[in-house]
Every structure is written in C-alpha cells, then in structure tokens.
C-alpha cells in the first residue's frame, strides 16, 4: 500500500519544480507545506442532493472544504462533479427542473435557504469554467464587470482594482496597451486568466474551477496551476480535474466521487491528496486511481 502509484511529487519538491519552471513568469509560488490537521471548513455541505427533474444527480453529499486550501474533485465522467460545483454557487438554479435539497454553508451561513441572495453568493463563490468564457467586451470591462454591479466606485478606484486583478493573474504587463480591445482577441490561456481576474476582482472567498485547464496548452496550464498555488491561503479553491497528475501537483486535499445506484453521484472518499493517492481508504478509489475502471 505504500507504493507510489502516481508521480506524486512531495510538496517541497513541487515547490522547487514550479520554481524551476522555465516560463518567463513573475508568479511566485506560495509555500506548499502540507497541513497535517485539516483546517476549518470554509464551505460545507450536508445531505446535499441535486435533481434534474426526476433524476437524482447527487446523493447526500457531505463535504467540508478546507479554508484557504486547494481541494481537487476527481471521478469518472457523469458522476456529478460539475453538478456539485454548479449547485454550490447556484448557477444550476437557471436550469429548468433543477433543484437542490440539503444544506450548503459558507462560514456557517446557510446558502441553500429559500431567501438566498444568489448575486451575493456568486460574488463570494466565484467560478471558472472549462472553456474560458470572457464576455464579448473589452478586457477592462470584463474585469470591471462584477465591480460595477456590486459597488459604486470612482473611475480611478475602478482602474486601480482592474489593474490589481490583472496583475494578480500575471496579465497586466501583457495587455496594458490593449485594455480596451475585446477580450476575445486574446489567446485561450490569456482569456482564462482574464476570467480568473474577473472572478478575483470582487474579492471572493471561494473559487470553484471546473476543469479550468483542460482547454489549455501545457504552458498555459502550468501558469494557471502556479496561480492556484499563489492564491491558496487567501482563497479557498475547489477544482474539478480529470488529470490526476494535476490533482496530485496542485491540491492539498482530494475528493473522489462515483456514480452509485441509478447513476446518482456520491462522495466516496475525502483525504489529504497524498493519502488519497498513496493509501486510499476505499477500494473503489484505489481501483479508479490505478486505472482499473473509469
Ligand atoms: N442540464 C442537465 N439536465 C439534465 N441532466 C443533466 C444536466 N447536466 C448534467 N446532467 C446529468 O447529471 C449527471 C452528472 O453530470 P455532470 O455534468 O455533473 O457530471 P461530471 O462528473 O461533471 O462529468 P464530466 O466529467 O463528463 O464533466 C449526468 O448523468 C448528466 O447527464
Ligand atoms: Mg463536468
């Protein structure tokens, strides 16, 4: 059981590996010391179920997402990973026939109550999607979008915040001479960083990422992973990935999901990432990470 099945670098090595990344990047990689005790939960679900019409897509999900850490969600296609993320920030409320039961709390406050304020939830719980989805407007307006919706800012404060957000994702210098050009004119990797800057601009507590690098080349992928490490500590990140090396490289904790009876997604195991990959508690996790199914 102690055999290392994946090229899971130890966490110090990971930091070194990223520091040696040949990219001309200014991104400093945060220290990635493995916490032994699970920090307090930022986001928690209890008996969370999600339905598309009569179809039960998530069954009784109980998860405690650790504050200021990166948690990866892995599992076979169709097991409900995207549904879980989309339920957490209520994007799925827009899907006809969708409903979620059970509890979702952020810092102990219920987010799944009747009187919820979805706009403010989405400000606190941002999301990054598989395909970069900048709005069809300028780079500046993309990043300013949420700020304009949520706050009355002077022009100079707005500029400062947009600049700070673009700087945080290592993009400001690349785009400062074309802030008023369409964000759609950027490369895929740059577009994804604009989307991350847009999410960060409003000061979220949590960012949900649904396969955020699967449409990107390896260099753009490394940049996003380095940014994730840099943001951890300040922001709680919950990331879905099909790439187990990525989960191993970037996350502190990992959750494994699987379809149970009648296709409903269930949470099988939640552990420190190194434990989940090196000594999974559940046979089904072991089968999945060793490629025996899924
Ligand atoms: N809008 C929808 N309407 C009806 N059913 C849906 C909808 N979105 C997802 N489902 C169903 O819910 C289940 C979970 O889908 P989901 O997209 O959450 O899986 P996933 O784990 O993200 O898969 P993948 O790894 O392929 O992205 C699947 O059976 C899917 O067909
Ligand atoms: Mg998905």
What does this structure look like?
The protein has 294 residues and is of the alpha/beta class. It has a domain at 41-135 and 208-289: Rossmann fold (3-Layer(aba) Sandwich), CATH 3.40.50. The chain contains 11 helices and 10 strands. The strands form 2 sheets. It has a 6-stranded mixed sheet, sandwiched between helices. It has a 4-stranded antiparallel sheet with strand order 2-1-4-5, with helices on one face. Strand 9 and strand 10 (265-272) form a beta hairpin. The protein is globular and about 55 Å long. It binds adenosine-5'-triphosphate (ATP) and magnesium ion.
What general form does the structure show?
Answer: globular
Tell me the helix content: 25-40%
Described by strand count, sense and barrel closure, the largest sheet is: 6 strands, mixed
Low-confidence stretches: 1-33
Trace the largest sheet across and list its strands.
Answer: 6-7-8-3-9-10
Percent of sequence in beta strands: 15-25%
The distinct ligands, each listed once, are: adenosine-5'-triphosphate, magnesium ion
- How does the helix and strand content classify structurally? alpha/beta
Determine Rg (CA atoms, Å): 19 Å
CATH topology value of the domain at 41-135 and 208-289: Rossmann fold
């Amino acid at each position: 059981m102690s055999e290392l099945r994946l090229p899971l670098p130890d966490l110090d090595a990971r930091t070194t590996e990223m520091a040696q990344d040949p990219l001309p990047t200014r991104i400093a990689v945060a220290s990635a010391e493995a916490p032994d005790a699970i920090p307090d939960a930022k986001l928690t679900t209890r008996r969370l179920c999600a339905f598309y019409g009569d179809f039960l897509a998530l069954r009784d999900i109980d998860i405690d997402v650790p504050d200021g850490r990166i948690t990866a969600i892995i599992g076979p296609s169709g097991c409900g990973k995207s549904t879980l993320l989309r339920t957490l920030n209520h994007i799925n409320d827009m899907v006809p026939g969708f409903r979620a039961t059970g509890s979702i709390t952020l810092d102990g406050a219920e987010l799944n109550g009747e009187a919820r304020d979805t706009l403010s939830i989405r400000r606190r719980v941002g999301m990054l999607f598989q395909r970069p989805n900048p709005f069809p407007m300028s780079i500046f307006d993309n990043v300013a979008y949420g700020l304009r919706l949520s706050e009355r800012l002077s022009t100079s404060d707005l500029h400062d915040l947009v600049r700070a957000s673009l700087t945080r994702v290592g993009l400001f210098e690349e785009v400062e001479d074309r802030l008023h050009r369409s964000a759609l004119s950027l490369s895929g990797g740059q577009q994804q960083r604009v989307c991350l800057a847009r999410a960060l601009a409003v000061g979220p507590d949590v960012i949900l990422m649904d396969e955020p690098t699967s449409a990107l080349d390896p260099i753009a992928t490394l940049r996003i992973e380095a940014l994730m490490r840099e943001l951890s500590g300040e922001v709680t990140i919950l990331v879905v990935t099909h790439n187990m090396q990525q989960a191993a490289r970037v996350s502190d904790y990992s959750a494994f999901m699987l379809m149970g009876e009648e296709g409903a997604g269930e949470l099988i195991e939640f552990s420190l990432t190194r434990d989940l990959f090196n000594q999974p508690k559940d046979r089904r996790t072991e089968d999945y990470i060793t490629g025996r199914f899924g």
